[in-house]
Amino acid sequence: IPDYADTEGNGVRLAGVRPGGPADKAGLKPGDVIIGINKKILQNNDALAYRLDTIGIGGEAELVVVSGSDRKVVNLRLQEAPETVPRRETLLDPETVLGGATIANLSPAVAQEVGISSRDTGVVVLSVRRGTRAEANGVRKGDIVLAINGVEVDTVREIERITARESRGGWQVVLERAGRKLAFERNGRFFRQYRL
Asked: What are the sequence ranges of the domains in the chain?
């Protein structure tokens, strides 16, 4: 959810605000910068995560927020990130292009567990077993699978269906990693990875 901000060297910029969530109810908007929490100055995302962890679910946080040119204080009660879709955690067949990767449907709760920006849809890699095809193809924990062979994917079931088929022309997998898109192509021994 947050991105590092540079307001006087401190703060955390909100990349997004979940409709109906605590931040939305407190009047926060994307682009707002949280510069303090419970009378402590925030330097970065790690400091915010630490402070939120110490407050805990159900606790109340007093935030100092810069919104445009305004500075305001808002209070919000912390709640658990919702699991909006069934996670359907799945270890992919070792013979497939993503074999050895454990994937799950994305929800705010899963995104929080993996430590990536919150999203409502998609499929995230939870782990990659050593010595597997997924590892050989450069797949990492936290990668979001966007497309396989030109077909956009939003669910674990779609990935299972597409990778279960044989691909005579090889495979192209598009991933998002830390906000950047990259792809890899695999056709037998041929392998290429590149940014999009």
From this structure: 2-77, 90-195
Q: Specify the length of the chain in residues.
A: 196
Where do we find the tokens 């497309």?
A: 147
**Cα gap 74→7, rounded to integer Å:** 18
Global pTM value = 0.72
What is the CATH class of 90-195? mainly beta
The closest of 112, 103, 111, 110 to 158, measured between CA atoms, is 103
Q: Under CATH, what is the fold of the domain 2-77?
A: Pdz3 Domain (2.30.42)
Q: Do domains 2-77 and 90-195 have the same CATH topology?
A: yes
3-state secondary structure (DSSP) of residue 108 = helix
With contact defined as beta carbons under 8 Å apart, do 67 and 93 qualify? no
Give pLDDT tens digits for 111-131. 888 888 767 679 999 999 999
Give phi and psi for 104, each to the nearest 5.
Answer: -150, 155
List, in sequence order, every beta strand (DSSP E) within 116-196. Answer: 123-128, 144-148, 151-152, 171-177, 180-187, 190-195
Q: Residue 186 pLDDT > 50, yes or no?
A: yes
Q: Sign of the CA dihedral 127, 128, 134, 139? A: positive
Structure tokens at 174: 């598009």
CA distance 103 to 72: 40
